[in-house]
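Handover notes (outgoing to incoming on-call)

Open items:
1. RNA polymerase sigma-54 factor: sequence verified, structure written out, both below. Nothing else pending on this one.
2. Nothing else urgent.
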Amino acid sequence: MVGGVFVDLSMHLQQKMETKLALAPQLKQALGILKFSMQELENYIRDEANANSLIEINEQHDREILIEMARLHQGELYSYTNAEDESFDPLTQVASKEESIELFLMEQLAMQKHLERVEKEVILYYIRSLNGDGYLDCDVEEVADYFNLPISQCENLLEIFQSFDPAGIGARSLLECLVLQLKRKEDAPKLSISLVQNHLEDLADQRFDFLAQLFNTSEEEVLSVLSYIQTLNPHPLIQTEDEKTEYIVPDLIVEEFNGEYIIQINDRYLPKISINKEYEELLRANANPETNDYLKTKLSDALLLMKGIEQRHETLYKVTKVILEKQKPFLQSGKKALQPLRLKDVAEIVELHESTISRAISDKYIQTPLGVFPLKALFMRGVKTESGSVESIITIKDKIKAIIENENVKKPYSDQKISNLLLLEGIQIARRTVAKYREELGFLQSTKRARDSK
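RNA polymerase sigma-54 factor structure tokens:
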């Protein structure tokens, strides 16, 4: 009794209903496989094979690629009759040599299925004309004369070769090597390419005040660009002792055919898996119950792994198909043609959750006719206009750039004024967002632009 009131301190057993979301092991595994990068998936397959005696892995790479590499390696095209003959072993033709950068470059060349035979021979010539630093040790005119081709065609083939990894390969000078690397880096400072192309000697001579005045910016900004440039590798084939070059293996390959874009899942580097026949026969022979249960569990695990990889490929294909349907202008015209695209947009079309789309594009790369890009790079935020259309951030930045470049230099527009001018075009964007984009474009605020113009 407490204060004249009886308090029941006895324990009662009550039922309480709660809703909890628990992922089934199969779904958890499938989502994990979907998120894996190519390297992570390869490691996961090997780990699973080591832990499961029913899983067999086949190390042989894609036969078509190896045959093509063998042809390139021999400097001639084998007939398909020879290639299919049992005595013809692409592995002995290619892998007999010590693994080298030449092998890696030839592997990339073998993937260029759209090239004619003579065009592949030209790029093979380039590969074999590299010096120890990765620079091209021949003239394009010399190559054009040797193959009896137009110089312009050989220049185009050199551009294809220079799109190979590592970045900077096939450059003809330090300047070209640095520019090739900068063009691949999305986070490269705005002035970096211009400074390298036109003022590399001024940077080396530390003429920071001159460059700051020339580009209407601060010395700190020039120093920042120089620091970024110093992170580049002037010798593409030379690594530091502590550095290991990691080459990007694209998860997807997109090729143009008669104006259409064909998507291919690039699984040729993954170990091929199958069920061990001996253990499968042992299971069918109905061994003792304990062994039978063990084998059934391992068989179930093996089939789940195979199903998970299959689902990964299907999801990647569906997601990429939607992305490319939206970003076809990008494939035709480059980065400036990227259209606004959100995870939500893709999720609604493929009828999957946004988190699944996020997993599908995480650490994935896509090889396109324009180069290799992170799949995430094909998503672009946008701003809805009064008309209901959506303008991409790139387009809005271009508009801000045009407004600033055409302003009265003695009376520059404030960020709020730029916001108001965009509103006249039906684009509602906050002043602080304008300030953010202006800074990303490398423009100073209006008061400093006015002061610098005096």
